[in-house]
Amino acid sequence: MLYLKCTQEVQKAVGLRKENLAVPQPTESPLGNWYVNRFNLGRRKAYIFFSETTLLSFILFQGRRRVTVESLPGMLLTGLEQLLQMKGLPQSAIDKAFENYDAGLYARTDSRADLGSMNDLVLQYQARVEFEGGLEHCDLTSIIMKTNETPQRRLGWQCSWDAVQSRLCRPG
Prior knowledge:
Layout: E1 2-6, H1 8-14, E2 21-22, E3 34-41, E4 44-51, E5 57-61, H2 72-87, H3 91-97, E6 104-108, H4 112-131, H5 140-147, E7 151-152, E8 158-159, H6 160-168
Parallel strand pairs: 1-3, 1-6, 2-6
Antiparallel strand pairs: 3-4, 4-5, 7-8
Helix pairs in contact: 4-5
């Protein structure tokens, strides 16, 4: 089971009502449950997806169509698959990442530490895009990859990619 833990900003944007939110449970999936937030990046609305176990993150932009309760899980799954492929992980590791993601529910955020880490990542993404000259001039893929190479205190100074590889590429 996958829980998408949405900030109030996301709940409002996609039309989630309080009665539609479940109480999140731990998952057996190697990358855990995911946090989702919406923020401004340049003049666009972006969604950050953040793994609570590995602190892996990536951003996707809201397109012309409104993001909905139905489309948000697909954004996560498609974005995650693309990210792992771009990193060059073997297909067996990518398949392992999706174990127990066959069904999903929405939930409130439930960890200040995770929210703090996610908000720090939002600031990193905004600063890196600005440093590279804005959305028109930056290499967003490179920014996402570099952000996940940043050592994280919560991971014992490992980077998110190290945590992902230890969970997806080990035998068993």
